[in-house]
Every structure is written in C-alpha cells, then in structure tokens.
Amino acid sequence: MSVTPFFSSLGGSGMLPLALILRAQGHRVAGSDRMLDQGRSGAKFEFLRARGIALHAQDGSGVTNSGQIFVASTAIEDSVPDLKAARAAGAPVMSRAELLAELFNADKHIDALTRKVEGAEADAMLYVIEMFKRREVYRHLSNAADRLEHAGGVLRDIVVQIA
What we know:
By secondary structure, the chain is an alpha/beta fold. It contains seven helices and five strands. It is globular and about 70 Å long.
C-alpha cells in the first residue's frame, strides 16, 4: 500500500491494531473517531498520537485528497462527514475486511510456486512465517485495545462515583 490510510473509528478494537501495523511498516497513518470528538478514551488516543498516528475530528477535515485510502469501519454510516469527504476527494474507500485481506494476501507467492520459480519455496515459507507473525500481532493488539477500552470505562465510573 503506497498511499496514506485514513481510518474511521480508529479507536475501535478492529481498526486500532490495523493502524498500528501499517504505522510499524512505515506508512503515514491518520484517522478519526467519534469517541475522540466526545472527549472519551483519552489514554487510547494519546497512545496512538505517541506512535505517530495523526488524529482528526470526525468532521471530514482529515480526508483531503485522492492519495489517501479511507478505511471504513462497519460502524460508520453514509452520513459521516469523513466518508462524504473521502468520496468528494476521490479517495478509494476500503472496508476493514478488505484491508485485512490485502495485508495477508499470498497470491504472488502462490503464483511463483505454481510456476516453479527458483527460490519460491523459501520465499513462500518466509511469507507464511511473516503472515503468522502479523496475525499474532493483530490478535494481541486487538485484545489490548479491548482491555484498554474496559479500563477507560472503569476509570470513568470511578471518577463519576467520586464526583
């Protein structure tokens, strides 16, 4: 992926790990989340900022050109300004499932194995190892995002009880 991904619902347990994986691969990553707009889950968003992920209000201001790929959460309705801005800018819109499929796509390795390209077996084995590592990283990040969300809810409840 040579374009800049922009994630809707960036703080969600499905999107956050994908954003972190792409950022770790060196991509410039940005996104928005309505919880950010509402001032909720601040620790989660500070965590993302600290890793170089640009955060925007969910008002369409973060999606500005066709060089971005808008990664849409299933929680995003057609009326969300970011999605409207992506369409207006001519940015491709991709679902989380499509991005996952792209990250774990092994077609080039399968093709090389089918054509019996020299070294294809070793390349395919290395790719499978890399794919399993990505899968594990995604699983752990997703679980961590869920726990972080739960911890934020507990802290909010404590603050409400104290106040």
